Amino acid sequence: MKERAIHDVYTVTSKGQLNMDHIRLLSLLYLPLMQSESFALYMCLFSEIDRISCLSITSDHERLTLLTGLSISKLDQSLRELEALGLMRTYVSYQETLTEYLYEMYFPLNASRFFEHPLFNTMLYHTLEEVEYEKTRYYFKVPKIDERYEEITASFNDIFHVSLHDSKPLQVQEDYRVNLLRDVSLHYDLTPFYQHLKDYQIPKRAITKEIERLICQLGTVYQVTAMEMLGIVKESLHHQQVDETLLKKKVRQYYDLETPVSFKEVHHVQPKRYLSQTQDEKLKKHIEYLEKVSPYQLLKDRQGGKEPTAHDLAIVESLMTRLHLEPGVVNVLIEFVLSQNDERFTRAYCESIAGSWVRKKIQTVKEAMDESIQYLKQRDHQKDDMAPEWFVSQKHTAMFEQEPTQQEDEDFEALLQSLKEGGSYV
User: Fold this and answer.
1) Among 36, 226, 358, 360, which one is least packed by beta carbons within 10 Å?
2) Are 377 and 412 in contact (CB under 8 A)?
3) What is the tens place of the pLDDT at every residue in 73-127?
4) What is the pTM of this model?
5) For 9-109, CATH number?
6) Which residues contact 45 (CB under 8 A, 6 or more apart)?
7) Which of 418, 425, 362, 345 is nearest to 388 (CA)?
8) CA-to-CA distance for 201 and 228, rounded, in angstroms?
């Protein structure tokens, strides 16, 4: 859509008038999500609507620039922001010499629907952060009725008797001026989702319009792709139907694991109390490198100086915060996993090894190296052409406390000879 011109005309309409409850909702729930100029523009547009006809006088956009102090460009941006938040709809009519806009205004969602909305609720939480979010949520809480009270409210049938022969039936006019609400329009490509639905054994009938809308909302706010969403939806099936509560929970868990809010631990280096000692000079040099470099820098070095991906950093951050692995130990794990997994850094592979190291209380770089070598020795289907450099360099080091038997020594020598020496990252 082209940008509005200052001499284009507009008319504002709505299904009713704002009240104080609407203003509280806008101020406490919507304002944190929008620019203050957009909030002011919304109030200005509603103020122009006549209380009787629910229609404004036709004016040009110059009037709005004078009332709000916004440039026509900024005005256009604010109008789009209100549209995106579901607070208005815009219609346009192009005439030969004139362009006319109709702005249909919508009321804000009530507090209950706002906090249940996956998109709005999550964005408010991340904008205000936990303490202020809880304060805002508390403001809208409705006190529960004490259990000692028993409801005795009369029902319609208790009071009224309706006879269609004696009086006119009660009718509800559908276009009555109600608190009209509009859902937010999202652009979320579900094509791959439906293409692979059968592959995940998800019945198509389980994806109702409501579930589809929820998937789009969750996918947008948590930045989960349609392909990633398939596995989450599969886990949320209950009796061949999608459990909405479980789906929200699973998406949130996926987001927490895949995308931490910030990466802090990945920049730490090995603590001095967990430094390693070795007599092998070549191995000593690489151990010192792994102790002095952070996991972030190691990943960057492995990629020729390019920034590590958020996916890789998220895995590393998780290993350090959830499993409490030391930075140097994580560095060994990074080199080991990349060498054994065709340079792919996958969460499942990392956590399967890391979990074992945690149970064995591996805290130093040397301990992690020795444990990696033990793992490769015991693995039945070892590939001969994969090993980090320090694996090969361990040939002349005392890897184990006990003296190996002659057969073990011969087996290990043969294993080392079969491995190709990898590149150095020092």
Assistant:
1) 36
2) yes
3) 999 999 999 999 999 999 999 888 889 999 999 999 999 899 888 888 888 988 8
4) 0.47
5) 1.10.10
6) 12, 56, 64, 88, 103, 105
7) 425
8) 15
